[in-house]
Amino acid sequence: MKRFAPVAIFSILLVTIIQTIAYHLDWWRFKKPFLPWLKSLEVAFNFGPFLIGTIGIFSLTYRFGFRVYLLVTVVLDSLISYVLIPFLEKIGLIHLTKLSRSGLNVVMIAIAIIIYPFQKWQDGNIKKKRKLLKWL
User: Fold this and answer.
1) Could you tell me which of 30, 43, 50, 27 has the C-alpha nearest to residue 91?
2) What pTM does this model have?
3) Residue 125, class by beta-carbon neighbours within 10 Å (0-12 exposed, 13-18 middle, 19+ buried)?
């Protein structure tokens, strides 16, 4: 779990940037924002299921390589886009305005594709630090 904390934090940064852009482009609206004075960021989502989900997906799939990671991510992102989002819309928590469910799915898969190389880079840095510490 500790190994994947940096990639989870990096993914939160990306999602926060995307949420800010989405707010200004009116892609979606949270009808009941977690922090009413901060409507462009849904903090509860970022530091809740998204953080835990990123760590969980990496913990379960990273050792099997990119293809397994991507397959699991596409399946989970599709479930979110086509099952969870309609449910959240039905109970009145979120409303997709200018972004379709397919568009949301593409955004989530793009994030997954971006963060995987970041984790690979992190692993390389960890190995370099271990070699340096052995030398000292």
Assistant:
1) 30
2) 0.83
3) exposed
